[in-house]
Design brief:
The chain is of the alpha/beta class. The protein has 16 helices and 7 strands.
């Protein structure tokens, strides 16, 4: 976050050939189990070119089989034509061996390292079976492999529906890379919903297992400071997860209708040297000093609209997690009938601030102000509605910060990444006054997005 500019608070109130997402994959190893149904047996990998028939390619083949089945079933209803399989086929690449067979569109197999891609000129998909898929599987679970390959086949769908490479070159303003990538993320989400609904021949996934898969998706977000107008921009974590969730919730037809006119992206570049130098992060104490006036202004405006008067809240710092009201809300808490806010400035909250970034702290703070607002309005502060509403209001606050003129914007590049990360990694923002919380990070992000998009009106206050 940035130090507020003059008049900020009043303003607050008034694609290349290879479309894969190359990145160093980070993350903590997780044990998510197999996404392949136990009665499937050994998957036939014979259609995969250059395969070694091993465990990784068996998983990839199972995913590709089901994605093809999904589009065979779905494509006619969305595009009024049959789905044609890839004419160039599917390639597994051993990037650890420079003498291994190479797929089309590259000169050497090592060029595929850490990548999966769709090549439109050859109508083929290739993946790195040595340094990408096994790493995704280890660190994020098998569902991550599902997302990556479904995303790449999403690019093949685009090539069949008027969003191919020729159209993008002819009209880059209509089809910027960030939009093309969002559509592919959305198509991946629509496929995963089909799997979650039990319709896939080979794969199975429960919604609560998607959190680690989303972690893998955001590991491929653009570097902080990338501007959405750049030719290779894919989106920040919020952009990518939003597109996936839209596909999951609404299906492929919504994905196919994405345009630059109806899609909002939060990826932004650095506009100040000071932001670039700090990565857009304020120290912990400066963040508290900087964000508190904005929180009070925003929640005061929402309270006034509801016919109530907001009492200015200044967070009280305590050593260790607050224990007010008997419930364990985490390192930030809304306390008492007046909605005072207490926070841990000695241990857990500063650690989150250091590990994720300053807007992780701001997101947790905003959720507690949201719970205090519910107290003021006489709304319940425990149970699923309160849990969802607290996160939603944090999203509403964030949306208000985002929708000011760029030169007055309080958010820094990377802040939206930090919000998504803290919502996926911790349930604190969704904890109610009793300490219970929305269990799935997927649902916490969805609630935050609801507030970001619709404002406080979408957060269950009426």
């Amino acid at each position: 976050m940035r130090t507020p500019l003059p008049r900020l608070l009043p303003a607050l109130l008034a694609v290349g050939v290879l479309l894969g997402c190359t990145s160093t994959v980070t993350g903590t190893p997780v044990g998510q189990g197999s996404v392949v149904a136990p009665d499937t047996g050994e998957t036939d990998t014979s259609f995969v070119k250059n395969t070694d028939g091993g465990e990784v390619d068996q998983l990839a083949a199972a995913v590709v089989d089901d994605v093809r089945a999904y589009w065979t079933d779905t494509f006619p209803g969305v595009f009024d034509q049959q789905f044609d399989d890839l004419t160039g086929g599917y390639y597994s690449v051993d990037t650890a061996d420079a003498t291994a067979p190479k797929p089309p569109c590259v000169d050497n197999p090592t060029e595929v390292e850490g990548n999966a891609f769709y090549c439109p000129s050859a109508d083929t998909i290739a993946w790195d079976r040595a340094a990408l898929l096994p790493v995704l599987k280890e660190r994020f679970g098998e569902a991550a492999v599902m997302l990556v390959l479904a995303h790449e086949i999403g690019h093949a769908v685009q090539a069949r529906t008027g969003v191919g490479a020729d159209q993008r070159r002819a009209n880059p303003g209509r089809f910027p890379t960030i939009l093309v990538e969002a559509m592919a993320d959305c198509y991946a989400g629509s496929f995963v919903r089909w799997v979650a609904d039990g319709k896939a021949p080979h794969l199975r996934i429960e919604k609560q297992r998607l959190d680690s898969a989303l972690e893998s998706l955001i590991s491929f977000r653009d570097p902080i400071g990338t501007d959405q107008s750049e030719s290779g921009a894919h989106g920040d974590a919020f952009d990518r997860v939003s597109a996936f969730q839209d596909g999951f919730d609404s299906g492929a037809r919504l994905c196919s209708g994405m345009t630059v006119d109806n899609r909002e992206f939060t990826l932004t570049g650095f506009t100040r040297a000071s932001d670039a130098e700090t990565g857009g992060n304020l120290p912990f104490d400066k963040l508290l000093e900087s964000v508190t006036p904005g929180l009070n202004d925003y929640f005061s405006s929402v309270a006034t609209k509801a016919g109530k008067q907001w009492r200015k809240v200044t967070p009280k710092t305590v050593a260790g997690d607050p224990t007010c009201d008997g419930g364990k809300q985490g390192p930030v808490a809304s306390c008492g009938s007046a909605g005072d806010v207490e926070l841990d400035d000695a241990d857990s909250l500063p650690k989150i601030h250091s590990d994720i970034g300053d807007y992780a702290t701001a997101t947790l703070l905003a959720s507690r102000y949201g719970l205090s607002l519910r107290k003021l309005l006489g709304k319940g502060t425990s149970g699923p509605d309160a849990q969802k509403s607290a996160v939603c209001l944090a999203g509403g606050f964030t949306g208000a910060l985002f929708r000011v003129p760029a030169e007055q914007r309080y958010l820094s590049p990377g802040d939206m990444d930090e919000a998504v990360q803290v919502l996926l990694d911790y349930d604190y923002a969704a904890r109610d006054s009793a300490g219970a919380a929305t269990a799935a990070g997927f649902d916490r992000v969805a609630a935050f997005r609801l507030g970001f998009t619709k404002g406080a009106d979408g957060c269950g206050l009426t």
